[in-house]
Amino acid sequence: MSKMSTVARFHALLWGVFSLGGFIAAFFLPILIYINNIAYPLGLWPVTSQDPTRLLVINQTVSTLFVFAAVGGSLFHGIFRLSATLAELGLKKQEAKITALGYAIIAVGLLALGYYLWVLSPNIIPGLAPPWSK
Amino acid sequence: MSTKKTHYPEIPRKNLGPGWWLANRHYTVYMIRELTSFFVTAFSLIYIYQVYRLASNPGTYSQYLDTVRNPAMISFSIVALGFTLFHSVTWFYLIGKIQPIKIGRKKTSPLLALGINTVFLVIISFAVLQLFIVGK
Questions:
Q1: Which member of A46, B65, B91, B133 has the greatest number of CB atoms within 10 A?
Q2: Is B77 part of any domain?
Q3: Does B86 reside within a domain?
Q4: How many CB pairs under 8 A join A and B?
Q5: B117 contacts in A (CB within 8 Å)?
């Protein structure tokens, strides 16, 4: 009984994070795609010749946290939703494997994103340097 | 009070093929809405790879920027932006449908939620632009 309720609570938590990720992707992702992948290569307003990612994540605290929230939240939401969509597109039998793979990608993706952002902006965790960084 | 369980007969279900969502306009719109997750996922993974390239080897990072400037990548990004904006609009509408806010006797409509959240999207986008200006 208590095991079931723990599982149910964990499931509810995952759906909560999924929902939060949906908001994050809806509010933050369009502007990030526009600036980084459209305005920068095409030289459109408001980007100059400088790479927007360097501006955002090298020795910047607020914008680095923004990138972590925007990309991490979107990754969680996207993979969670894509796993369910693939099941609806005829991969129902492979749903458990797809879900497990999805969680693995989310875990590796979030850890990698967090670590490399920390390497680029060590000041996001004051007084602690990232291990193995150059 | 009776504790006897009622057993309902199982309703026969038709096996649906992978193209079931093309049979009806509503299903098609639903599936396009769900498939926005592919572009959300793809962009997130591509961006994580970009951060990795910048952090692990700044010397060869400019080679990656050539990939960003590639016409195929720009085309993909324009399509991804379209799908992401479609995600934003449908998500705002859906939230208004699932969680309407009660004001007095009336409840807010999904269209109102869409309108208010779209205004927030514009404000937040301009606020994010300030991060770039601060970065300069």
A1: B91
A2: yes
A3: yes
A4: 167
A5: 26
